Amino acid sequence: MSQPLRSALVGVLCLTLSLLVAAAASAQEIIHYTYASHGESWYQHLKTMAERFKAETGIEVNVIQSTGNYQEQVLIMITAGTPPDVTDFHPQLGPTLIGEGLFTDLRPYVERSGLDLTQFPPITIEGLTAPDGTLWGIPANLYPVVTFFNADMFAVAGLPTPIELGEDWTWETFRDSARRLTVDRNGDGQPDQYGIEGRITNRWEQQVHQAGGQWFDRLVFPTESRLNTPEVLEAVRFITSLMHEDGVVAPTSGFSIWPSVGNVAMTVVDGPGAIGTYWQGATFAWDVAVQPKGPASRAARVNPDGFQILRDSPNKDAAWRWIHYLVGSVDNQLEFAATTGRLPSLRDAMLRYDEQLDIQLPPNWMAFFETAFDPNGYAAYVVPANILSAMNSQMSQVWNRTISPEDGLQRAHEVVSALLAEFNQ
Question: How far is CA 29 from its chain centroid?
């Protein structure tokens, strides 16, 4: 990073810290330091709700939007003695804070307030729970990953859609459909249309879970690698067979299912957040379905964004009242959905997701609900970034066909095992 840019960022952070100190001077004022990458609509929703919350409770919420590296900034604020009261991390964003116990255990607050955790998909609560049982966050919204498909392409090919296949929507029919939906129209030997989008390797852990396996012994701060197990190998062989034997996985450049490009039939890596960003104004029929069933299940990633209270917050009770206000009310969650387009986390709000949205939802949008509550699903892995980077570095050689799935997974297992041993010392 250049010195002028570093100086500018330090200046911004110092300004933020001064605002936090000023905010902390009032006992009836709390600081919600929000992650900028959640987007402007998220930020504006918090600002609107903060005004109402103050009118109803007398507690002022100072909502400050982050700049730069969110986790690093929060750690700096904690070190400086000016921690925010509330943050909005998701599992992959805050492993350092989770591992060092810098979030408050919210279970006592949940119990005292009567918030019903059974209204949230169980896997999202699991994803926001540390190995010691600490509930470090409450789900605000969910990102269940489903199958998006171009229904017109299925119709032209004379194929039943994933919805029409029902229980027969499996790895086998996924593969067969992809073969028939990969088309070389001009006879030059290169497909002009592909069955599956190239981003399938971005979430390859889904196929691992669908085969009955996991990357590690547990999702949150694992202690052992499972990369050398038969289930992981089966999943990787399935993906590489789609890529290299069948040739049905599109290159990542120049091909996309999204309407702006529209030359791929299916993707299995997106969730509801993609709808407002990429799918509005589509000129072809499209829909969503659950994941294709693998040898064990239809497991899908269901990532929760959540709200936390910092361990060193001087205003924990007021901070909890604010979090409960945001997530404990169906009406407030529906307003959140209307403002941001995100899928709310409460079951009863989720069932009414389509009521207030201005965006076009797919006809089978309830696939999001079904996926969210599938007991075989999983939240994002909470693993130090260097371990994921080392694993993906090995796996990129498998996807590129430089090494075999067997050799790649064994190498990844050895590298990851060494890093996990060092991390868990």
Answer: 31
355 against 389, higher pLDDT: 389
Instruction: Reduce the DSSP state of residue 378 to 3 states and report it.
Output: strand
Distance of alpha carbon 150 from alpha carbon 3, whole angstroms: 48
CB atoms within 10 A of CB 33: 23
Q: What is the Cα 254 distance to its own chain's centre?
A: 25
Encoded amino acid at 106, one letter: L
Give residue 289's identity as a one-letter amino acid code. A
- Among the listed residues 131, 95, 97, 127, the one whose alpha carbon sits nearest the alpha carbon of residue 224: 131
> SS3 breakdown of the chain: % helix, strand, coil, rounded to 5?
50, 15, 35
Strand order in the sheet with 264-270: 194-196, 264-270, 146-150, 286-289
Residue 295 pLDDT: 98
What pTM does this model have? 0.91
Give the separation between CA 180 and CA 202, rounded to whole angstroms: 23
pLDDT tens figures, 201-242 = 999 999 999 999 999 999 999 999 999 999 999 999 999 999
φ/ψ (deg, to 5) at 190? -120, 125
- Please check whether residue 66 is in contact with residue 34, taking contact to mean a CB–CB distance below 8 angstroms: yes
pLDDT of 6 strictly over 80: no
One-letter amino acid at 21 equals V
**Which residue, among 26, 4, 15, 107, has the nearest Cα to 314 in the 3D structure?**
26
Q: Which two tokens stand for residue 43?
A: 């930020």
- Written as one string, the DSSP assignment of 243-276 is IIIS--BPPSSS--SSTTT--EEEEEEE-THHII
Tell me the three state secondary structure of residue 136. coil
